[in-house]
């Protein structure tokens, strides 16, 4: 295990809520401050720690995907560009909901319970009552609080945060952050479907073709990652590699070296593209040090993509806004026609349809046309797009995609966009096909 890996493991063992510094890690692990700094940044990207201006870096609990829409108080500080006045040791805690304190104290406190975040202005007594109830406090308008409230916050490990923004701006910022988290939650990544290391079959660099044959007979699988004694991926070996090879032949001599790998945060869409493009059936999943942590199969990736398409979405991305508003207005398979009305979200600063939205409209038209002829999806290889005339906000347009050519693995599409019978956009699209 490298020093970097040892530091990450050390950070993982630290108590939740504890403060971490570069100097502390460097001293504890006998490494340079530069090495310690890089390891802390890696831990931050893994969701193990959070860095807050004027506070420092604290150990936080890594959130599971089902709880991703819940924010920690540390995240709230960064969202509202806040200053922590007290209760720093509670920054790692998760808030269950936030309450806007824009009413009389008695009425307000009926809604405040333990684990809440009360958003309120310059009202010292309310700050104190909220803390005694078990809620953290976010003070808006740049106001301070009393020394008694700060002392109580420290005793209860409940943060008191101050921000220069007003109450309703803060509420909108937190809502936006939660909404963004919901969108992230819906995006399926490798971590959601990978076969973990303890259930993964693999071979080591010192073994021979005979070991592959034994593993093949035992598992029925034909593809395996090849690792060294530190579990770092060195290659992939499949049936075609060992065909006609002597049993004593070292795996290292016949394997595919430097194979493509993915990490646990890679999206399933990206993995599907790699697998289709490269003709790969099994991909090793590695950590930041290229150590094997599992594998993903083509079958599981395609199944996950099909399941995702059937799921209801909570947080809408711009692409979902566009595709959900496309309606088919003809039933013919030969030349389906779709309509869509341009909403404000689809426009650029000039009030006309943006390049990204136009691209999405073209691809979605092609995707739906393919599904009318055969089951499956597309991975776009090339798109040539022509903007012939600007399309204004609130304009209704018609999208006419045509399937020019389709084979077992490739398809070509022509897509035209019309406004009041006049062509305003055109695209030629080529794509690889992912069969369902």
TrEMBL record:
The keyword Aminoacyl-tRNA synthetase does not apply. Coiled coil: none annotated. It comes from the Bacteria. Residues 255-317 form the CBS domain. The keyword Iron-sulfur does not apply. Pfam families: 4HBT (PF03061), CBS (PF00571), DRTGG (PF07085). CDD domains: CBS_pair_DRTGG_assoc, hot_dog. Keywords: CBS domain. InterPro entries: CBS_dom, CBS_dom_sf, Diverse_CBS-Domain, DRTGG, HotDog_dom_sf, Ser_kin/Pase_Hpr-like_N_sf, Thioestr_dom, WH-like_DNA-bd_sf. This is CBS domain-containing protein. It comes from Alkalicoccobacillus plakortidis. The lineage of its organism: Bacteria, Bacillati, Bacillota, Bacilli, Bacillales.
């Amino acid at each position: 295990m490298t020093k970097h890996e040892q530091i990450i493991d050390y950070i993982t063992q630290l108590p939740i809520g504890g403060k971490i510094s570069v100097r502390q890690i460097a001293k504890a692990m006998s490494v340079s401050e530069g090495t310690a700094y890089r390891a802390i940044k890696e831990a931050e990207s893994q969701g193990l720690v959070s860095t807050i201006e004027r506070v420092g870096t604290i150990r936080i609990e890594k959130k599971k995907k089902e709880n991703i829409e819940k924010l920690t108080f540390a995240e709230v500080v960064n969202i509202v560009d806040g200053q922590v006045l007290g209760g720093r040791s509670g920054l790692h805690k998760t808030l269950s909901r936030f309450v806007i304190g824009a009413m009389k104290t008695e009425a307000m406190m009926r809604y405040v319970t333990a684990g809440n975040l009360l958003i309120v202005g310059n009202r010292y007594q309310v700050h104190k009552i909220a803390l005694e109830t078990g809620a953290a406090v976010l003070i808006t308008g740049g106001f301070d609080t009393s020394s008694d409230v700060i002392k109580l916050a420290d005793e209860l490990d409940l943060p008191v945060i101050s921000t220069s923004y007003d109450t309703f701006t803060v509420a909108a910022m937190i809502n936006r952050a939660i909404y963004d988290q919901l969108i992230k939650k819906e995006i399926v990544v490798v971590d959601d479907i990978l076969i973990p290391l303890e259930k993964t079959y693999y071979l080591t660099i010192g073994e021979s073709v005979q070991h592959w044959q034994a593993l093949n007979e035992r598992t029925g699988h034909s593809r395996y990652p090849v690792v060294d004694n530190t579990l770092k991926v060195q290659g992939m070996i499949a049936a075609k590699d060992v065909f006609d090879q002597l049993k004593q032949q070292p795996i290292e001599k016949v394997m595919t070296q430097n194979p493509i790998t993915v990490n646990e945060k890679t999206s399933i869409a990206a993995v599907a593209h790699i697998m289709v493009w490269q003709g790969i059936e099994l991909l090793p999943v590695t950590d930041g040090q290229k150590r094997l942590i599992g594998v993903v199969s083509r079958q599981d990736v395609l199944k996950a993509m099909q399941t995702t398409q059937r799921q209801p979405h909570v947080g809408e991305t711009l692409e979902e806004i566009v595709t959900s508003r496309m309606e088919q207005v003809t039933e013919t398979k030969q030349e389906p026609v779709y309509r869509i009305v341009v909403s404000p979200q689809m426009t650029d600063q000039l009030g006309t349809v943006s390049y990204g939205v136009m691209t999405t409209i073209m691809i979605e038209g092609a995707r739906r046309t393919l599904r009318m002829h055969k089951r499956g999806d597309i991975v776009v290889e090339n798109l040539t797009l022509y903007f012939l005339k600007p399309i204004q906000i609130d304009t209704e347009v018609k999208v006419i995609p045509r399937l020019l050519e389709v084979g077992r693995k490739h398809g070509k599409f022509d897509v035209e966009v019309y406004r009041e019978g006049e062509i305003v956009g055109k695209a030629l699209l080529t794509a690889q096909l992912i069969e369902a």
